[in-house]
Amino acid sequence: MNSEQLFEKSLQFVPGGVHSPVRSFKGLHTTPRFIKRANGAYLYDVDGKNYIDFCMSFGPLIHGHRSPQVEKAIKEAVENGWSYGACEPYSLELAEYICSRISFIDQIRFLNSGTEAVMTAVRLARGFTGKSKVLKFVGCYHGHLDSLLIKAGSGLAGVTAASSLGVTEQTTSETLTCQLNDKEAVEKIFAEFGDDIALVGIEPLPANNGLLEQDKEFLQFLRDITKKHESLLLFDEVISGFRIGFGGMSEYLGITPDIVTYGKVIGGGMPVGAVAARKEIMQMLAPVGGVYQAGTLSANPVAMAAGLANVKLLTEDFYSQLETQTKKITTIFQKWLNENGFEDYQILQKASLFWQVPATKKLKSEQEIPEHIGQRFSKLFEILLEKGIYLSPNAYEISFVSAAHDDEVVQEFEKRLWS
Predict the structure, then answer these.
(1) Active site residue 236
(2) Would you call 396 a catalytic residue per the annotation?
(3) Which pTM value belongs to this model?
(4) Catalytic residue among 131, 133, 136, 264, which?
């Protein structure tokens, strides 16, 4: 069966035919490709076509598909068993490796996803502070937990509306929102609700609704105002953690959050999330503290082995080379855009992440994203897909470069663009 036939069949058994919405190619005028296998920088679909992959499973595959070191670790782990429901040494080794190399965390707990990690961080902050409200920013995505699946209503700071059916008004009443990069709005919210704000959560590099890099001054302002009001600051580094550098944006900026959440890269492509903080906060988690969290498959031994193999490859030289390759790719891509009817596009790039958007300046908030970018992206995506180039299939999703995007792949990318 080809991709079109498989998708039609999938629609019978799976809501929307997919297990995560963005895979549906919604808004695009083409059928989702069903991927049969992958290797290095390439995807291979059931129709016999291959693609240079810049989605990279939405970020985890920093070494590319089937990294030899990660694959070896997975195979060795599976030979020992793949789920114990008991203590094991693999998660301890990964925990020690991470905590000993990131100065601002003392302890870490592994979970199964970024959503679980943020859910735990919210509960942990409420338990630690004794406060109930959470402040988040429009344009930052923190997973699909109810309390943070919220966006601003009518552009008013503190006024919330759910982004999904099934999220109750009672839940939204505990969540405050405002636009990114708006110090005045944050100050007004703290003036009214400061005594009851348990947590301020932000992606220090917002990368789920475009790439909205924030000024260091704004993030430092959040650090200062949360300390002043005895609220906790969460840096959600599910995407940026171990991508920007080993210590993520927190280390890059030199700003220490109270809690940090991780995912994606630390799993090496396996399902992993993590919440980490200083010891006095983490000791609030059960079984030592009163904040409950549990998971049958948390710290799965295969995922832990994959994660450890993955992060052990992340050296300073690795990050430097990865950014060099990313700049080669974005330079070539920008030239093609300029010469092929997309001259209004610019490529925003940070480390090994990039986002193509029809705008002429750096964007810092959701309000600045041009309207109707989906229509333009649909045309661009389909042109590139036909050329054998696979971007993340949504106008607001960013793309990722991996170590597998070597000079040979860069040359092939350039060749395919102009073919």
Answers:
(1) yes
(2) no
(3) 0.94
(4) 264
